[in-house]
Structure formats: C-alpha cells, structure tokens
Amino acid sequence: MALAAMMLALAMGSVTVPLPDLWQVIQGDGSALHRTLVWELRLPRAVAAFATGGLLAVAGALMQVLLRNPLADPYILGLSGGAAVGALLAMLAGMGTLLISGSAFAGAMLATLLVFGLAHGTGSWTPSRLLLTGVVVASGWGAVITLMLAITPSHKLPGMLYWLMGDVSYARTPWPALSVLVVSIALIMPLARNLNVLARGPMQAAALGVSVRPLEWSVYLLASLLTATAVTTAGSIGFVGLIVPHMLRLVLGNDQRVILPASVLAGGTLLVLADTLARTVIAPEQLPVGVITALLGVPMFLYLLHRSR
Amino acid sequence: MSTLRTRDLIINIPERRDGFALNMTIESGQVWGVLGPNGAGKTTLLHTLAGLLPARSGWVELNNAPVKELKRRAIARQLGLVFQERQDTFPATVMETALIGRHPWLSPWESEQGEDQALAEQALRALDVEGLSNRLLNTLSGGERQRVAIATLMTQNPDIWLLDEPTNHLDLHHQVKVMNLLRNQAQSGKTVFMCLHDLNMAARWCSHVLLLYTNGDACWGATESMLVPEALERLYNQRLISLKKDGLSVFVPAQ
C-alpha cells in the first residue's frame, strides 16, 4: 500500500510519467527530464509527505494514550497554533525559509511548555484539565494568528495562508523528518506494552509495575518533538493525527505494539496520496495538502463518531 | 510467601488531624477484611499499602523492605491490587485485559507467550468468564467486569492480593465463589487483604479484621475478637441485631 502510493506520487504530476518510464528511471535509465522530475523533485517531496504523515499519526496515537481520550490530537492541544505563530512572525519579519522553520519549531515547543506548565499547576495532571487547557490555549493562538493576518501587507498573505493550511512544497529536504521518525519509533517500541497498560489509567498502570510519571513525561516530550518536526516540515496539516490512529484502532484493536508502526505506514500513505491529489487536481496549480486532509478527514471523522454511538 | 508490615503508619486523609498509628503484620495464609463507614479511609489505606499514595507518617514494609524504596515493577511482582473504579476509555477484549496482568513479568521486547495465555485462560475460567474472552469490556455487565478485574489480578499472580470491595456488583452465587477463591488462594500461601462492606462475609471468610473509624481510630485482630456487636455499632453508628446459627455470627441492621 505504502509502496504503491509512493509509485503513484512519483508518476503523477503536471507532467505524467507513465509507469514503464518510471520503472526505467528507477533502474537508472529514462529521459533526462523524467530523471530530474522523479529523483530531484518528486521523490524528496513524496518522502517528505510520507515522513510528515507518519510523524503526525504517531504523535496523535501517543497523545490519545497519554490523555486517555480517543479524540486527542497534537493540534487540539494548541501545538500547531504555537508553531503557526512562530512561522508567521518569521514571515512577517521577512526571514528566510530556514529561520521560518526554526521559528515554527520554537513556537511548537513553547506551546508545549505553556500547555503543560499551565495544566500542571498545583500538581494534579488530569487529562480533562490538560485537554481543556490545550483547547483554550489553541483558541488564543487562533486569535493571535487572525490579528497577524489582519495587519500583514497583502503581498505576503498567500504564502502565510498556504503555510497555515499545510503544504508539503515547503519541505526543503525530507531527511530530518524521516530520521526523527525512525529514531522515535525505535525509542518508543520497547515502551509500547507500557503504553497499553497506561491506557487503563495511571493508578492501574502503577499497580502493574509502570513508572507512570517518567513514562508520561517521555511520551509527551516525544509527541511534542514529533509534532514540532512535522509542522516545521510541512506547515499545519490537521486531522492526520486524529483520523489515522482512530481508524486503525477500529480495525486492529488497541495494542500499541501494532498501532504505532501501523500509524507510520497508514499516516505516511495517507499524506502521500493527499499530496499527490493536491498536486494533480488543478495541475499545474497546486492546492495546500491540509485542505485535502481536512476535506477527507472531517466527514470521515463525523461518520466514525456517528457510527460508534 | 510474602509479608506486609505497617510501621506506625498513619494514612493521609485530607482534613483529618491525626489517626491511630497502624502497626499490623499481614502474613501469608491470612485473609484480612477492612471494615468501616464511607470515608473512613479504606481505599486510601489500600493504595498506601501498595505504595501508590504517600503516607502521612510511618511506612509500609514489603518483605522487610520499605515499599517507597522499591521499584514499581518489583512491587508489582509481589503485590497486586483490584481497584474499586476502573477506566475503560479504549475498547479492549476480556482476554487482553486479563493478559495485562502479565506486564510486570515480561521484559520490554517480550510479548505474551503460550504460558501467559494459559495463566489468563485459567484465571478467566476460575471466575466463570472464560466464555466472554473475546467480548469487549464495555459490553459486559458490572458484575462480569468485576470478575474480569479479579481474573486480571489472578493472572498477575502476586503473593499479596489487595482488593477494594471485590464482591461489588456480584450476584450472591458469585460473591460466595469469589470469597471461596480468595480463601483458597490464602490457603495455598497467598496473603489476602480486602475492603468489605458486608459484616457477614467478614465473619465467614476473614481470619483477621481491621476496623477503621471515621475519626481515624483503628483496631485489628482475629475475626472472632473483633466482630463484637458493641464495636460494630460504634463503627457504623447503627444499631445491630446479631444472631448465632451453627456457631456462625450473623449481623442484621436494626431499624
């Protein structure tokens, strides 16, 4: 599935590369145009899309276990809002892409600290409090974003709007995202059974031998890092972190040893397909991929919610 | 064979000035029942014994080592707890639920083997829920869920069993079945310590009883010496009628 989606992503675009030609390119032959198109333009972009999708889906799956709420997602906790404010500030100041990425990353981490710092408060760290704090802080970021858009000179607006809706074409290079994804999966897999137990509640988990506090902190930090990396790579793309783990749970059950690697594949595949669609629907014009995921995600999510009643 | 000992333990109940220091020794083969009115601190005591809550003063020893110095995993191999309330946010089957009892026994990369599966099946059978093993937890009745929780503890197989009102939601037959199971476990060398609300169950199945009063007072000892009507009436602030039948005490509340 994931491989087929990658092939499709390589073949489709404003110039279509037929499959036999694509095969030649992969083997090192084919015309110069096709080679450049595939190796230098489409492959990095497809890898970036895959990595971003995987990062978001894993981050979503982790947040849902952490908050013991199947509707939790890094975006709901205001992480993407913080990243967006960071990125827009950098754009407003006319900084280069590298600084925009750095600023977005800083914004996401700041949002993380803010939400958890506020929710931590007097020591009780209940999921509902965390979720509420996240939602409130997220709407705060939303207001700041609207304010910034209102005072921005009009020639800078399109770039900002594309960033806000999520756009893989911002990805300079896919490799940082991909390596973060690989490393964090390697880190989290030994903890997957601990997460299964944590899903039963912190007291039950502690009674079954899990050191709850350290586990919760490492999961939270990891999920924040994953989200920040994803947002930095491709702007704010919603619903992948919410939809993918949710659907996988319906099909595969709630064993994190299965859900986490499956999230990488399914999230990556979804975003590669969505990005291919975004590039081809009105080619040569491109849509921001966040629009596609939202258009796919919202009805699917409502359907799932409706059916589960 | 494990021993749980409390050393001058005073549990941390908010807004209670002080309490009677508990110096109990709970040994293998014994079945303890904790009796007391709502809010007396039965659940808090259970959680403190398991090292899940800090004590106000004093400490708990598990096989002569202070519980708060032990790793959670080391505790979980010797001591297990059935909670009164459980969270079932995510759908899980009965079998999956029983199998999480194996968690403290498996290393990070290990997955449940046939042996673990066999232990879980055996526990589910002992609690009459083996026919439900593929059902989702949230489709079960309260009593069935309670039995699955006890089966999870049985799968965990620690030496010390702490249970918070294990007969909650159970029908009469299964109440008896669970209490017999707990007594049999104690006879095979386990230690059982549970909160109860039913005086008659304590009278029939417990070897030792701890009475916890709302004001923090406590007394404990062998069941026969503790279950005297005057003490129980003071405990619950409720007049009782006590009957004797075939050497067994029966307590009924008076109007």
Q: Would you identify the CATH H-level superfamily of chain A?
A: ABC transporter involved in vitamin B12 uptake, BtuC
Based on Cα principal axes, name the global outline of chain B. globular
Biggest sheet layout of chain A: none
Number of helices of chain A: 14
Low-confidence stretches of chain A: none
CATH topology of chain A: ABC transporter involved in vitamin B12 uptake, BtuC
The total of beta strands of chain A comes to 0
Major beta sheet summary of chain B: 6 strands, mixed
Structure characterization notes:
The complex is a heterodimer of chains A (309) and B (255). Chain A is an all-alpha fold and 309 residues long. Chain A has one domain (2-307): ABC transporter involved in vitamin B12 uptake, BtuC. Helices cover 75% and strands 0% of the residues of chain A. Chain A contains 14 helices and no strands. The two termini of chain A are 30 Å apart. The model of chain A has no long low-confidence stretch (mean pLDDT 82). With 255 residues, chain B is an alpha/beta fold. Chain B has one domain (4-253): 3-Layer(aba) Sandwich (Rossmann fold). Helices cover 33% and strands 23% of the residues of chain B. Chain B has helices at residues 42-49, 72-78, 94-99, 114-126, 142-156, 172-187, 199-205, 223-226, 229-236; strands spanning 4-10, 25-26, 31-35, 57-62, 65-66, 79-82, 160-164, 191-195, 208-212, 218-222, 240-245, 248-253. In chain B, strands 6-7-8-3-9-10 form a 6-stranded mixed beta sheet, with helices on both faces. Chain B has a 4-stranded antiparallel beta sheet with strand order 2-1-4-5, with no helix packed on it. Chain B has a two-stranded antiparallel ribbon with strand order 11-12. In chain B, strand 9 and strand 10 form a beta hairpin. In chain B, helix 4 (114-126) crosses helix 5 (142-156). The longest helix of chain B is centred in the last third of the chain and has 16 residues, at 172-187. The model of chain B has no long low-confidence stretch (mean pLDDT 93).
